[in-house]
Amino acid sequence: SVIFGLTNKTASPSIKLLVEDPIVVNPGQTVSLVCITTGGEPPPILTWVSSNDSLPQRSVVKGGTLTLPAITSDEAGVYSCVASNNVGNPAKKSTTIVVRALKKGRFWITPDPYHNDDNIQIGREVKISCQVEATPPEELTFSWLKNGRALRSSERMVITQTDPDISPGTTNLDIIDLKFTDFGTYTCVAALKGGGIPEISIDVNISSTTGEPHTPLCQRHNKHHISQLYN
């Protein structure tokens, strides 16, 4: 004899991601995203989708696991696991992958000796500003050097980091009451706390020709070097 058991029990799908959100990684790392079903009858089918329209060509999907080998900045974005079993609405869980990056370092001087008539002079205040694009921005750190030696903020040399909502990725070095002893090469160094990304260093030369009053302290022979960095 054969006994058949019939049931009309169905349930919409439910899932869980076994990853953090967001996931912050260095370029070149392999990232694995794991999605598991926690409910659904009949058993749901799992698929992965990306905010980048399609999954990276090198990605591998096995069951509920999505593997992204040697990830790049172009592959950063939102990745979603979708479960469907034709009962109710599909279940969807998402996580954001952030790939660390530093790029587009630039600086400017206030007052600007090359774009304004206002010269930099002894006894005046000079501000050197340094800006980079950082991902993620909250990991960005700055340090300043003078002639290769670390600078610390003081009453006459004030180091500040601009409000990220106003001018993201920007630090300023204010030199109060400029003196001859302040001439030299100032270096702004940008880094990410998470590490694994090369630092960005930007050099700014401030100098003067002795005996020429009202001469811009950033000499003309430095202009080519500074313009390269500025652009």
Automatic annotation (TrEMBL):
Matching CDD domains: Ig
Short name of any one Pfam family annotated for the protein: I-set
Domain of life: Eukaryota
Molecular function per GO: axon guidance receptor activity
GO biological processes: homophilic cell adhesion via plasma membrane adhesion molecules; synapse organization
The Ig-like domain, residue ranges: 13-98, 111-207
Gene Ontology terms: cellular component: axon; neuronal cell body; plasma membrane
InterPro entries: Cell_Adh-Cytoskel_Orgn (IPR050958), Ig-like_dom (IPR007110), Ig-like_dom_sf (IPR036179), Ig-like_fold (IPR013783), Ig_I-set (IPR013098), Ig_sub (IPR003599), Ig_sub2 (IPR003598)
Name by which UniProt lists this protein: MAM domain containing glycosylphosphatidylinositol anchor 2
Organism expressing this protein natively: Poecilia latipinna
